[in-house]
Amino acid sequence: MILMACLSAAAVGAEERRVYLEAQDGTRVQIATLMIAMDGSYAVSMNAPVFTDHFLSMRPFKCLEGPAKHWCHVPYPYEIARNISGDLTDLEYDFLFLWKGATEYGINMWNGVYYNLVETDGSFTGTLYEMDMNTLAAPPDAGDLRPLKAGDLHESDPDSHWLPHLIIE
Description:
mainly beta; 11 strands; 9% helix
């Protein structure tokens, strides 16, 4: 279905961008391709080969394996418009992660990672914020496409995380 959306977006003159997570030392991992249509709608295609399958806390996750921490993608489970013509919130929701220690068995939902995106010179840069993913355990009220509030996000020390930056260019 995502591939079909990408092909539809490409047919109407969409722009293709690459999505990276970046470590403190500047090392990048391409995690996805983003197709943005002229009307601001978009489609995400995750870069499956860079992720490994993990079964954590009775659920399947796709994770990037780091030396000390693993970064596990959390697909946003509720409705979003997938449009960035007004702001970048939908895109932020598509790149939610949980981190876990590389030697830990399960996951802790309070280890959520949220990248707050800003646009600069045509590129998007995400700053890591921490969040408790339990906030998203229950579906939002009907029509509430933005259930996360500023109080749900907490500034993080970038030096304390493996992949503190999200870059889209």
